[in-house]
Amino acid sequence: MKLIVKKSRLKGTAAMPASKSHTIRAVAIASLAKGESIIRNPLISNDTEAAVACYRALGAKIDTSDSKLWKVSGTDGHIITPKETIDVGNSGTTLRIAMGTSSLQGGKTIFTGDEQIQSRPVGALMDALADLGAKCKAVKNNGKAPVEITGKITGGKTSIAATTSQYLSSLLLCTPLASGDTEIDVTLLNEPGYVQMTLDWLDKQGIDYENEGFRKFKIRGNQKYKAFDETIPADFSSATFFFCAAALAGDEVRLSGLDFSDSQPDKAVVDYLKAMGADIDIEAASVTIKASPLKGAVIDMNKTPDALPAMAVTAAFAEGTTELVNVPQARSKETDRIKCTAEELKKMSIDVEELPDGLIIRGSRPEAAQLHGWGDHRIVMALSLAAMAIEGQCIIDTAEAMSVTFPDYVELMKSIGADMEMK
Fold this sequence. Notes:
With 423 residues, the chain is an alpha/beta fold. Helix content is 30%, strand content 26%. The chain has helices at residues 20-32, 46-57, 92-102, 123-131, 165-174, 192-205, 236-249, 268-275, 308-315, 337-347, 377-388, 409-414; strands at 3-6, 10-15, 36-40, 61-63, 69-73, 86-87, 109-112, 134-138, 147-151, 156-162, 182-189, 209-212, 216-219, 229-231, 250-256, 279-282, 286-290, 298-300, 321-325, 351-355, 358-362, 370-371, 393-396, 419-422.
């Protein structure tokens, strides 16, 4: 589908959707717990529905008939061998976390996903699980899905270069249920905030572990997860697009439901925008943003790779030069987001330069264009931000990809004045 966007002025209040990352972690833990868990205000999207289907295949009973309250009857750690291959769709989080989960039983589990998932590496996670007792095989011998997980982790020692935090989160979620203790040496860690999110869930569960500065973890084995009743917080990754849109085209936009005490790393986008001169006021349960002149800045984005496309678009309208750096893992997301974002910015006559680990954007006068969304939800939404601040009309293809994490994006943006429609 195509997203057609025209210049807009934004004003009003929008409630942010629930966190994808929290929702998937909640589904995983509830599925491994004993008893019935309640997940309140889950995100309903392709990625979270993929997680539900995955954990159902592993033996959990998950009732999603009420979109505001999911009920999960867990397996008490005794997951089953699925009868068929588990297709995670476009959900990298589901794939990586469920690979760890599947290593808790002795049968064979095969995971696959869409074309983008099959291009994303999982070899480092496979090697770590193998160190702990599982047997892992990439069907195409390329370190990527489809993958087979057999055998059963028993604990032990491993090391991992967590080019994506999802590798480490997967290990931290599964190893407490191994029969023995586990030690993990972390030789590289990108996106540490997402690991902190995982640790927050372990803390709520009373899981016994030691964390030595995110460089070494010791996890006691033979532990249990317990049933819980939790509300999923609003998603800062989704809010990023509203932060940036309001900074570019907002008379006054108020975003509600965001909790800055939550560990989600993308809350740092507010700091990035403030450094560029954005007018942002943070209150107890809301954030208010008004458009103001922006200036270039140097921003280390290692903790927030998902925000790269939106920040790159925002930088195109700033005076001077913006450098978005130290985010090489952005090349291994649903797409190579550094390369793909640069190509689309150039179509709008934006002066952009690729770095191995980021982008240099020189503020200019962007022009309307026909744009390719690359089938990547975050690129599609980021390009729509530019369109709202440009005279004329932009048409963005593969816009259906937004349903991966933010199916209500268009309607919510329109509710505060955006001139956009799907066709």
